[in-house]
Amino acid sequence: MTRSSLTTPPAGAAVPSPEAGGPEPGTTLGSHYSRCFGCGTEHPTGLHLAARTPDGATVEAEFTVGEAHQGAPRLAHGGVLAAAMDEVIGMSVYLFRKPYVTGRLETDYLLPVPVGTTLHLRAWCNGIVGRKAYLEAEGRIGAPDGPVAVRAAALFIEVDMAHFAEHGDVAAIAAEHHDYEVNP
Ligand SMILES: CCCCCCCCCC(=O)SCCNC(=O)CCNC(=O)[C@H](O)C(C)(C)COP(=O)(O)OP(=O)(O)OC[C@H]1O[C@@H](n2cnc3c(N)ncnc32)[C@H](O)[C@@H]1OP(=O)(O)O
């Protein structure tokens, strides 16, 4: 992965271990919002990622490239692939049970991804320092050990629910997603 210093954890950054009381290995992670472009089941053209954690620390999901996701004819749009990486990374940091948002996302595109391809996505955390989480993801073609088509590195920033209340529709999140306290 070619990455900048901004997405590289500083020396000594703690790599979190699976949280006590967090999701058990094998748990399917629900969508955080039904209309989310990345994971929403009600989004008509979204990515429909349904993620699970095999070990409580990493996240896996599959994304099948559809007609709505094209850039060049019959090939996935790079921005859509970046969205898939953003979403699976967002799901991996959600394992820590705190709200985070993407601050920076860096993406390497290694292979073209034709319509109809299933990308096998995996994301994990390389360290957390204060509010900053350093994360990484990859997308492999056709199988969990298939050729790597996309790699991403990201810096996510911890926020509180006031972020969503101030800038978005916190009631819509809270109505669907009962893990977060809206007024802690
Ligand atoms: C309820 C669950 C919802 C889950 C949703 C998941 C969806 C999937 C993920 C997404 O797509 S989120 C949507 C896209 N992202 C955004 O809309 C975020 C927009 N940006 C912001 O709201 C603010 O810039 C942000 C909250 C990220 C930071 O603002 P703050 O005022 O809270 O913090 P500050 O600017 O002081 O930065 C905190 C630290 O992070 C660093 N930082 C922030 N943005 C950075 C950046 N872009 N690059 C590098 N470093 C960055 C910053 O330098 C600083 O480092 P230090 O603590 O060492 O001084």
UniProtKB/TrEMBL annotation:
Broad class of the protein's primary localization: membrane
Protein's membrane topology: Peripheral membrane protein
Organism of provenance: Nonomuraea aridisoli
E.C. number: 3.1.2.2
BP GO terms, sorted: fatty acid metabolic process
Subcellular locations according to the entry: Cell projection, Ruffle membrane; Cytoplasm; Membrane
Catalysed reaction, written as an equation: decanoyl-CoA + H2O = decanoate + CoA + H(+); (9Z)-octadecenoyl-CoA + H2O = (9Z)-octadecenoate + CoA + H(+); tetradecanoyl-CoA + H2O = tetradecanoate + CoA + H(+); hexadecanoyl-CoA + H2O = hexadecanoate + CoA + H(+)
One Pfam family recorded for the sequence: 4HBT
Domain Thioesterase: 76-140
Protein's UniProt keywords contain Cell membrane: yes
Protein name: Acyl-coenzyme A thioesterase THEM4
Protein family per UniProt: Belongs to the THEM4/THEM5 thioesterase family.
GO cellular component: cytoplasm; membrane
